Amino acid sequence: MYRYIAIEGNIGSGKSTLATLLAQHYDARLILEEFADNNFLPKFYQDAERYAFPLELSFLADRYKQLKQLLLNQDLFQQGIVSDYIFTKSKLFGRVNLKDEEYDLFQKLFDIVDMHLPPPDLLIYLHAPIPSLQANIRKRGRSYEQNISGEYLHNVQEVYNQYLKREINKTLTIDMTNVDFIEKPHHFTQLVEFIEKDYDFKTHYLSIE
User: Fold this and answer.
1) Using an 8 Å Cβ cutoff, are 6 and 122 in contact?
2) Pick from 174, 179, 178: nearest CA to 203
3) Cβ distance 5 to 22 under 8 Å?
4) Which helix (DSSP H) or strand (DSSP E) does residue 119 occupy?
5) Residue 114 class from Cβ within 10 Å (0-12 exposed, 13-18 middle, 19+ buried)?
6) What 3-state class would DSSP assign to 86?
7) Has residue 120 got a pLDDT over 90?
8) What whole-number distance in Å separates Cα of residue 44 and Cα of residue 40?
9) Closest CA relative to residue 153, chosen from 168, 141, 136
10) Which residues contact 172 (CB under 8 A, 6 or more apart)?
């Protein structure tokens, strides 16, 4: 197994679900993003222009603190780690949510702390069409997410696409259009079988049926 696997994708793509399944399968340490106690998040969805910068700063600090504590602890690292986000997520959402002058400052802060964190050995990116994301968001029922627009999800998707074109680490993209790792366990089995073959690739697009 890879020592450090990270899952990424748009809002509602199924990151936490897959990360939990992989961590259970490999008896790995699970890192789930801590956002439930972020007081800026509901405020951001009510008034994005006012609360975008404090929201992104708070996420930057929280993600760095969480990942630094776990990824730089070699004892835990031996166990294997599965995370449902990468630290670069902060910069990607900052690009979507911040004004240009705010983003320039935010990027300087990001670059200072980013150099201290190791990249994942394998990045799994979950790509889902916007209607599927919206259906998943409605299904999980977080009140502050229910008014997220298709335009916003599209903008997030585009920023991820641009990032993946430049990503130099090992990246596996999964088309989630018809994939359900919970209701269709054989989908998860197919993914695990692919991971365990440890193919030599930089980028790979995996179609699961």
Assistant:
1) yes
2) 174
3) yes
4) none
5) middle
6) coil
7) yes
8) 6
9) 136
10) 122, 123, 124, 125, 194, 195, 201, 203, 204, 206
Q: Which CATH number, 3.40.1710.10, 1.20.1250.20, 3.40.50.300, 3.40.1280.10, labels domain 4-206?
A: 3.40.50.300
Query: What does the pLDDT look like over 153-180, one tens digit per residue?
Result: 999 999 999 999 998 889 999 999 999 9
Maximum CA extent, the chain: 48
* Buried b / exposed e along 178-200 (16+ C-beta atoms within 10 A): ebebeeeeebbebbeeebeeeee
The residues pairing with 127 across neighbouring beta strands, listed in sequence order, are 175
Please spell the DSSP secondary structure of 16-79, one letter per residue: HHHHHHHHHHHTPEEE----TT-THHHHHHH-HHHHHHHHHHHHHHHHHHHHHHHHT-HHHHTT
Strands 29-31 and 171-175: unpaired
pTM (global) more than 0.90: yes
Per-residue pLDDT tens over the stretch 70-96: 887 756 556 899 999 999 999 999 999
User: Within 10 A of 81 (CB to CB), how many other CB atoms are there?
Assistant: 25
3-class SS string, 129-187:
CHHHHHHHHHHHCCHHHCCCCHHHHHHHHHHHHHHHHHCCCCEEEEECCCCCCCCCHHH
Q: Could you identify the residue written with the tokens 């910068």?
A: 53
pLDDT of residue 39: 87
